[in-house]
Amino acid sequence: MITVEEHLERILAQIEPVDAVTLPVPRTLGMVTTADVLSQAELPRFDNSSMDGYAVRRADLEGASAEHPVMLPVVADIAAGDPASQPLAPGQVMRIMTGAPVPPGADTVVRLEDTDGHEREPQFRTQPEEGANIRRAGEDVRPGDLLVPRRTRIGPAQIAVLVSAGVHEVEVVGPVRVAVLSTGDELVPVGEPVGPGQIVDSNGPMLEALVREAGAEVVHVGRLGDVEGQTTRQINARLEDADLIITTGGVSKGAFDIVKKVLTGQGSMEFVEVAMQPGKPQGFGVLGRRHVPVFTLPGNPVSALVSFEVFVRPALESRGGRRVSQHTATGLATESWSSASDRRTYTRVRVSRDSGGAYAVTPAGGPGSHLLGGLAQADALAVSDPETVEVSAGSEVDLILLRPRREIEGRLEDESTQEAGQS
Ligand SMILES: Nc1nc2c(c(=O)[nH]1)N[C@H]1C(S)=C(S)[C@@H](COP(=O)(O)OP(=O)(O)OC[C@H]3O[C@@H](n4cnc5c(N)ncnc54)[C@H](O)[C@@H]3O)O[C@H]1N2
Ligand code: MOO
């Protein structure tokens, strides 16, 4: 057996980011820039008002106060979007809205609240500082400024900055297109009658969801019987149109473990036993002329899920040019549970809050890698090392979260509100 770290290292050493593509900015969410992105414009694009009020020449308001207001006539209204080409002459003002261009000749904006708000003959009660309430052209960003450095994952905020600053397209590491293949003669697709000896293919939809959640694209979800020719043909086809392939099933020691049989000796494919529970039988290699990473995960549903979290997720991140991170937290065991003596053990746990505010974790169902009942209750995997044979109650465990942290926090807040309501 090899360790989890050894297997993961071997995988990541063989993963290259997919080719770069140039896409319209709004379509790059979650993708990583390949080069520094510079501004094409100045921001603000023109001097504009930060308040609804009046554009004035400051000198015209000399001595204005609440006791001695100064009246100046409104000669025009300027809305956001107006070109504001008409200059402001001395002794006049213009009504101006937030975001509207400041007219030539005006040097200050007076807030509506500092006047009586009259539409045509307003009384001004203050003389603000020169330049008050004006957002100057270029004070935020200048052409050529660095907006988004290379290797940045684009989020909603970066999209806003880029489109504002005149950047229409950006080069990013392309979307990672993933194919998912479930193997096994016993599998029936979702929604079809389940005959004797058959089960519903749950790995296919589960992995499809995991891949989507990880920000990659699912281009193919298929099922294969335990037939050599079909398996080879399907995998070869996917090597042409996918950037990463995930199979489940057919990798242990059974007489019909076809995946292992057809892929042994192909590309850099290696089938190994990893010191982990669940998820011991693993296969990985890079295949075909496009060097597509292929993961052959064990068929048991929990084994497939754990294998995805531990190996496939970091590989997907890396293939997308993103930095590899593990979604970890810690929790305190509310009860003791056993841990495989020679393997790193991933125990499905439900998270709650202990009296000190920390995460408290309780096993969700039994440890069998076929057990689906408790899986829906699990928020995290508690990780215990090969030397640990028992995780004792009260001890701290590392967690791999299966849900975003804020979702877990939201549920815990709901639960504590409900408890407070009941007591
Ligand atoms: N003699 C041995 N047998 C097994 C060993 C071993 O070391 N020696 N390892 C066991 C472990 S651990 C695991 S994990 C499994 C892995 O088996 P395979 O990857 O070959 O998977 P299958 O045999 O095809 O299926 C295992 C199990 O999972 C169910 N399954 C498969 N695909 C799906 C799917 N898409 N959706 C839902 N469930 C699925 C399948 O029906 C089996 O029950 O091998 C052990 N055996
Ligand atoms: O290693 Mo298997 O994944 O225990 O069930």
Automatic annotation (TrEMBL):
InterPro entries: MoaB/Mog-like_dom_sf, MoaB/Mog_dom, MoeA-like, MoeA_C_domain_IV, MoeA_C_domain_IV_sf, MoeA_linker/N, MoeA_linker/N_sf
The protein's required cofactors: Mg(2+)
One Pfam family in the UniProt entry: MoCF_biosynth
Catalytic activity: adenylyl-molybdopterin + molybdate = Mo-molybdopterin + AMP + H(+)
Biological pathway: Cofactor biosynthesis; molybdopterin biosynthesis
Keywords: Magnesium, Metal-binding, Molybdenum, Molybdenum cofactor biosynthesis, Transferase
GO BP terms, alphabetized: Mo-molybdopterin cofactor biosynthetic process
CC per GO annotation: cytosol
Enzyme Commission identifier(s): 2.10.1.1
SMART domains to which the protein is assigned, alphabetical: MoCF_biosynth (SM00852)
GO MF annotations in UniProt: metal ion binding; molybdopterin molybdotransferase activity
Residue ranges of domain MoaB/Mog in the record: 179-318
Described function: Catalyzes the insertion of molybdate into adenylated molybdopterin with the concomitant release of AMP.
Classification via NCBIfam families: Glp_gephyrin, molyb_syn
Family membership: Belongs to the MoeA family.
Name of the protein described by the UniProt record: Molybdopterin molybdenumtransferase
Organism (species): Ornithinimicrobium pratense
